[in-house]
Amino acid sequence: MKIVRLIIGVDAILISWILFLMCISKDADLKLSFNDSSNGVNKNIKRTAEAKETVRAPEPEPEEEKPYQVTRKEVPKFFRSNSDRIKSSSFAEKKDEPPKSVAPPPVVEAEPVALEAPIIEETPVAVEAPVVEEAPVVEEVTVEEAPVVEEAPAEEAPVEEAPVEEAPVDGPKDGQTELEYWQENVCGEVPDSICHEVFVVSDAKATFCSAAKVASTTTKTYFYNLSNELVIPENAMFGVHEANWIRFHMLDSEARKYLLTTDEYTHIFFWKHVLERFVSGYLDKVVHDCEENDVLEPHLAIYHYIQFGFTCEDHKDIESFVSFMESVPSFEGHFHAQAPLCTLDKYPFTDMISADETLSESLEKLSTKLGVEHPLEEKKSSSHSTKAKAKMVALFKDKPELIQRILDMFKVDCDNIPGACDVDELMTAIEEENTV
Known about the structure:
The protein is mainly alpha-helical. The chain contains 25 helices and 5 strands. A hairpin with a 4-residue loop joins β1 and β2.
């Protein structure tokens, strides 16, 4: 309808323009009549009147369009403006009925009624559909109730009745003693320490065990010289310690059981006084290594204690070191207790030899027992022991209370090795030193 009204308005403007032109021509005729000479005034007026009648004669139809007539001032001003700004003006409102000739059907089609259709998209009922997701009844019914199954877990079936597997429990079988069971499984899944610490010298029909810092170099040199099977590699850095020794775990189970039960072999346990061994390890592996090494490397014995907070700056002093060792959960070989290392309570040792000033004499007696020629020793043990005793006196003369603290750390040796913790002689020497 807006378009129809616009067309009607334009039509009215055109008609008004025609009338405007007619008025101009009419005025022009009147002006011409007044410009004529006075003599022909009446004649000109007559001509003018006739011309006027002639011009007005063909105006029957425009007379009916008077409702659409506009003033002279409005027309030029209106057309000077942009025609695209024409709105539904008063010209269209005054028109009662739009001319039939104007209102072409295509105009109606131009009304994109379909444009109003997108309103349906504004209310996409489908969008509201997700509301159903807000009430996911399925999720509520989520098999969260399934835990009921967990409440009745079939795992209860094998409840602690499964421990029937305890049948193969570790331990002696019927009629078997603990010692016999140990002999049978000594180097099994949980090998005993002797599997690594006991050396077998078949040439001399002997086995021996000695902890670190228990004259181990001397004792190994002794048995090395008795055997024809042992060889030291040419590039060995630690001499006799790198010979091709046969350790107990290298034997098969039958051979191991034979050694543990036969009377044909001699089994020697070398031991050292607890306090002397501790001082030897302290001077060699702590004081010496801390002074000779700016960085403690993994191959050093003391490296084991770094994990527990050891530092040369804080623990090189004897009292500090003793306090530190009292707090350590595990000792490495040079400070490990001797009795447990060689399983003294189970391994069938036949001889217990002290690695003290009498060691050389003890080895000579052992050679006789083994029926072998006694090898020559590079150095006697007596002088070594004398120096060790002097060092202990110097260390403990001002702090004798440390002696008992050290013995307490190795109580297992004191209880299983007779004489291993006897300090009477040492305490006498300290008293004499302090009275001088």
